[in-house]
Amino acid sequence: MEQIQIIDSKNHVGETVKIGAWVANKRSSGKIAFLQLRDGTAYFQGVVVKSEVPEEVFQLAKGLNQETSVMITGEIREDTRSKFGYEIGITGIEVIGESNEYPITPKEHGTDFLMDHRHLWLRSSKQHAVMQVRNEIIRATYEFFNTNGFVKIDPPILTGSAPEGTTELFHTNYFDEEAYLSQSGQLYMEAAAMAFGKVFSFGPTFRAEKSKTRRHLIEFWMIEPEMAFMHQEDSLEVQEKYVAFLVQNVLDNCDHALDILERDKELLKKYTKLPFPRISYDDAVELLKKNGFDDIEWGDDFGSPHETFIANSFEQPVFILNYPKAIKPFYMKPHPTRDDVVICADMIAPEGYGEIIGGSERATDYEFLLEQIRQHGLDEKEYSWYLDLRKYGSVPHSGFGLGLERTVTWLSGIEHVRESIPFPRLLNRLYP
Fold it and tell me: What is the value of pTM for the model shown?
């Protein structure tokens, strides 16, 4: 008898199989017991009919507690009433591990309670679906960059300097030196691009920012491509193709997960249409001012309400181009005809999900960068290796960073970024 996973049920209709699973829920009458089973790949129903099994099997089924692990024996059959489409007619049950007084019951629980039990909350159908969307985004990311000639390079997590200033870094001792947890791998990816042409990284980053918004995490994952011999306009095309590719693959491969999340698939399909709209920072400020945002002035960074309004004006991901130089990092290329803005763009997701990509063309002039480093109060010695990149065959190059968790939150249609990562690190939360 073959042991299968629930997700493969469609290939075994009419066959008697074994499945290792957990009991997510159950209900029973005098003559039939229904078990909601999950095995990590999918959920489906197991049916135990009293007249078709020994009495001890039926009584065992009726007495199973939530999250008890079992080995089920039975016949796979079609079930047109369920979205999954299949169920198992159970003939045998072996209890593997008992579960008593499981804390997350089928009722409403507060957020703090669920976060304290995150190690168990991951088992619920909605959280499971979000992690499936996350996994698909990760899988599709590797496919996109691997098929487009990029080489994956892993930048260090421990660094001696900060790419975007020193105010939001986690400090640690590195033997007899000062070190920080990385807030971006970008500078190292620039070095890698000078060696390999097109590169990308995919790893954890850290921000010691005391933020409590629904868009912020302390620890999160970033995808950071960097491309030599590429100007900003070409980079924007890569960015929109990449995001549209992610959306399409989630639609193609996470159909059941999107159903569980009650995500509007027709809305997601709109986000695959290219090109994405673009608006300059200047015009974005004017758009906001004309629509009652009296709190915004040229030179300000946009907050969540501003980004949401701008994105909703286009109903698609939108690029905001060329922000003021004063609110962007030191490494961005200055605009050729203006001293007050740099060549950069943020991609803002629709539906109020905010910035998911930040990118720019990088400055290539050695003296300009040296002056920027000094003006930002950064240590020239710490950045000497970065300046070397402008001394030995510098070329135009551009890159960007996409936040994985914000993208998962957006495509899943969930409210808070804390549900987009298995074990979130938030302000005042380091457990579990």
Answer: 0.96
> Looking at the predicted structure, is the pLDDT value of residue 167 above 80?
no
Q: Walk across the sheet containing 177-181 and list its strands.
A: 158-159, 177-181, 171-174
pLDDT in tens, 57-106: 999 999 999 999 999 999 999 999 998 999 999 999 999 999 999 999 98
pLDDT in tens, 243-288: 999 999 999 999 999 999 999 999 999 999 999 999 999 999 999 9
Give the total residue count for the chain: 432
Beta bridge partners of 3: 18
Q: Return the higher-pLDDT residue of 214 and 195.
A: 195
3-state class (DSSP) for residue 244:
helix
The dotted CATH code for 6-97 is 2.40.50.140
d(CA 66, CA 27): 11
Which of the four pLDDT bands, split at 50, 70 and 90, describes residue 116? very high
What's the pLDDT tens digit per position in 349-394? Answer: 999 999 999 999 999 999 999 999 999 888 899 999 999 999 999 9
Distance in angstroms (rounded) separating the CA atoms of residues 247 and 317:
11
Locate the DSSP E strands across 184-272: 198-206, 219-228
Angle (nearest 5°) at CA 94 between 92 and 100: 130
> Which fold would CATH assign to domain 118-420?
BirA Bifunctional Protein; domain 2 (3.30.930)
Q: How many CB atoms lie within 10 A of CB 177?
A: 9
User: What is the arithmetic mean of pLDDT over 103-119?
Assistant: 95
C-alpha–C-alpha distance, residues 308 and 354, integer Å? 6
Beta carbons of 356 and 402 less than 8 angstroms apart: yes
- Which of left, alpha, beta for 428 (phi over 0: left; psi -120 to 50: alpha)? left
Q: What is the rounded CA–CA span in Å between residue 340 and residue 187?
A: 23
**Paired residues of 216 in beta bridges:** none
Q: Which of 323, 325, 328, 331 is nearest to 370 (CA)?
A: 331
What are the angstrom distances between the C-alpha of 179 and each of 134, 190, 425?
31, 20, 20
Sorted by where each begins, the domain ranges of the chain are 6-97, 118-420
DSSP conformation class of 341: B
